Amino acid sequence: MMSASAIPLYAQIEDALVARITSVLHPGDRLPTEDQLIDEFGVSRITVRRAVQNLVARGLVVTRPGRGAFVTAPKLRQPLTELTGFVEDMEAHGLAATARVLRAEEITAPPEVCTALELPAGSTVMLIERVRLANGTPISFDRTHLPLELGRRVAEEDLANEPIFDVLEQRLATPLREASYALQAVAADAGVAELLEMRAGDAVFRIERTSYTDGGRPVDHEVLHYRGETITFTTRLPRRPTSPDAAR
Asked: Which CATH architecture has domain 9-71?
């Protein structure tokens, strides 16, 4: 039963759950169900939902359809200053990275993929789709296109346990030198939302990345969808020298 107070009931529940999250629960732990919170605090379902929604808005928990609300890990900070892969990024934060391979097959490349990989229109490429997880939590859905012969060799490897970057560089002698990178904030469609255990319409970062080997040859084109509440991208930008007049 909540105490009589000028503080709204939903805010009292929110504060109680924050205290629990910061002192007792760990990332990945599930909050009590709505029914359990209703019984514990003696309030309505609407009040409980508002408290949990506020925790979601603060980035402290994430809801997974049909499963409940779970404590989030501290938001990852990803600098955009060098080319790194998912496993490297997660290991830098002390997280165990794994992958679930959904698809690996030869397809006719869409026009934008042919352009990115500098292939003739209508070329066949290897498509590999994976869900990437950190400590068991889905973080990213990756759709990777590779030139056909290279992609066939990549697809033969154990991509559930070996990142494509490692396969290219360590097994196939294809060093990755640089990448082009375009990032957008978009709403997750139903397919992406299901794979990342979120709601359709929730925010995701859509990243389009093309990686290049020696001589500027493109060898890997990816479209990545990162859960928006899990990561912050950072960079540091130099300013071009300007004349006093131009700076006004």
From this structure: Orthogonal Bundle (1.10)
